[in-house]
Amino acid sequence: MLFLRHRSCRHHSLLRIHIKFLSTTSSQPLHLPLSFPTYMIWGSNTSLGKTLISTGLSSSFLLSPLTTKKPHKFVYLKPIQTVPSLGTILRPRIGILGFYNLNFREENRFVKDGVNVVSELVCETLYAWKEAVSPHLAAEKENGVVEDSLVLETLEKCLRKEEDIKEEEMDVFCVVETAGGVASPGPSGTLQCDLYRPFRLPGVLMGDGRLGGISGTISAYESLKLRGYDIVAVVLEDHGLVNEVPLLSYLRNRVPVIVLPPVPKDMSNDLVDWFGDSDEAFNSLKEIMISAFSERILRLNDMAKKAGNTFWWPFTQHKLVPEEAVTVIDSRCGENFAIYKGQDNQFITQQFDGCASWWTQGPDATLQIELAREMGYTAARYGHVMFPENVYEPALECAELLLEGVGKGWASRTYYSDNGSTAIEIALKMAFRKFSFDNGLLSDFPNNTRTDKSVQLKVLALKGSYHGDTLGAMEAQAPSSYTGFLQQPWYTGRGLFLDPPTVSLSNNKWNLSLPEGMHCKNMIKKGMSFSTRDKIFDKSRDKSDLTGVYSSYISQKLLQYPGLKESIHVGALIIEPVIQGAGGMLMIDPLFQRVLVSECRSRNIPVIFDEVFTGFWRLGTESAAELLGCLPDIACFAKLMTGGVIPLAATLATDAVFDSFLGESKLKALLHGHSYTAHAMGCSAAAKSIKWLKDPQTNHNIISGQRLLREVCTIHCFCLLIAYQFPKVDVRTVSTIWNI
């Protein structure tokens, strides 16, 4: 019989690594080999016998009959170990014979069954401490705290040692055994289920066959599933309580439960007979693990081809996307994708999500887990409940947070929808009603509902703007490739679209560029260049000569607009405050937008801010309106509002807008909605995200008491992506907006 020998390769390290961005493990992206099965061995508690599983698997794998002439190699890795005092062997280590000094790696080679094939057993402990307590306590007591990033980096290096072994030369099987229970802290204090999450290795859970073990096993399983781990089997020792029956019922037979014979209590027992009695169980477990690994690789290898034959991707010309260009995403951890690469050596690597998945993402890995937990709780509590004339906590809390945050000082009502484009459609309906109400167009309601369309309402908007892809939102945009006949045959462009002045950074100076038609012969060049970003946003510019130029330009455009007469009106202004996102990351002169808002206010034209992209700290403040220095009547928010885990949008409005829909007839109400309006999961995720992002205790980028972000390192990568997607854009404009 083979006995697993366990030796440590390194003692604790005082080295601390501070990672700013791009990767949670090191300055290089994670590289996790998938050319051989690698599994985490988890325990639902300590002292249950995780090493018994590791030992049994090594025996089953290394001593199994050879079906080929290829040798076998079993790799046992223990990233974290607290070591008992010399001569004391804890019961869960019963499958390991002897205690060995640290700073040692052991490899065993042997010939089996008389066949001249040399198989190998490698046992390695990465970091160990002398006192047999929880790793975070041992590390603190022995002054040997190891950062999470270093643990992961070292583990990755160990796994990559086996990557160069060719599949036709040797079969490799690897297990990574955790310390204690699923949620036991690592040496830095991070729970191990969170510590190892960037790897997301599939796992086997050592359950508890004792009294109370059903609850503990289920809790451990749920903690792992909540974090996105795949558990291929649950193993537990038989204590005569038949715990496997309720566990199988709970798991609905989706995950097999394997029962091991009772472990002898005599500490002098070498367990040879016990392992012999357990052969069938460990062989079964090994086959389950190998089969699950093969199925996973098969799925990953087939996904790109199946996607090309099944999906209809948005904004994509399928003829230009070969199979090898499809990105296969295995998972996400914080701001990194885990990408599968199916080349000669299959592996998982990290890829920074440079466009924040269309600007929906912002959370780190910690908030990602918090949101998953919050949504799981909400789904279990509510499922889905209809919204009209009803109230429930997530929807109410989210609405209040929005009004106290991005809507503070102006908004009094929250109208929920499902995405940014729909939020814009609702905003347009609100604005047109408010304009009609203020300008007497509804004076004969309800006697005349004006179904004859005798009144036409247009929008005032900016060229280069983007407000979504639904029909109404597209009508509020200037003509472009997205609104042409090929894309939108119904498009007419129902608005007056102004060419705005833009700001860019060159040679450490901010330069203002005016569109054609805005230049005056006698115009002084003063105020066309700025030394700092703050000077561009300075409200003192409102008294400059340029204010008059902007005002005159806007007034003339409104007067010259053909068709503006009694039956045709500009009924709404809609702008993306400060930055036009999809239009090319263009910074619009804040003074121009303030003057535009002022001119519309003087004409009773409601103002809509499209903050779907800019909202929730994208530009360093919670709302871009704070940067701009003026307030809307209506504003739309989505994307980052939920932390990027589920779709939800909100259109905020003033009391005056809301009041224009009040009346004795339901026909005067805002008749718009969808089945999942204000769905509880989205509202709870939004509430959690809004609170998390504005709290200095959880978001360390927030300057306490100032409602401003500190410098954000990852914006550099964002700017690089912009440079790639929009070669003509000066990315320094974007980076400086974020105080970089």
UniProtKB/TrEMBL annotation:
<dbReference type="InterPro" id="IPR049704">
    <property type="entry name" value="Aminotrans_3_PPA_site"/>
</dbReference>
<dbReference type="InterPro" id="IPR027417">
    <property type="entry name" value="P-loop_NTPase"/>
</dbReference>
<dbReference type="GO" id="GO:0005739">
    <property type="term" value="C:mitochondrion"/>
</dbReference>
<dbReference type="InterPro" id="IPR015424">
    <property type="entry name" value="PyrdxlP-dep_Trfase"/>
</dbReference>
<dbReference type="Pfam" id="PF00202">
    <property type="entry name" value="Aminotran_3"/>
</dbReference>
<dbReference type="GO" id="GO:0009102">
    <property type="term" value="P:biotin biosynthetic process"/>
</dbReference>
<keyword id="KW-0808">Transferase</keyword>
<dbReference type="InterPro" id="IPR005814">
    <property type="entry name" value="Aminotrans_3"/>
</dbReference>
<dbReference type="InterPro" id="IPR015421">
    <property type="entry name" value="PyrdxlP-dep_Trfase_major"/>
</dbReference>
<dbReference type="GO" id="GO:0030170">
    <property type="term" value="F:pyridoxal phosphate binding"/>
</dbReference>
<dbReference type="GO" id="GO:0004141">
    <property type="term" value="F:dethiobiotin synthase activity"/>
</dbReference>
<protein>
    <submittedName>
        <fullName>ADENOSYLMETHIONINE-8-AMINO-7-OXONONANOATE AMINOTRANSFERASE</fullName>
    </submittedName>
</protein>
<keyword id="KW-0032">Aminotransferase</keyword>
<dbReference type="Pfam" id="PF13500">
    <property type="entry name" value="AAA_26"/>
</dbReference>
<dbReference type="GO" id="GO:0004015">
    <property type="term" value="F:adenosylmethionine-8-amino-7-oxononanoate transaminase activity"/>
</dbReference>
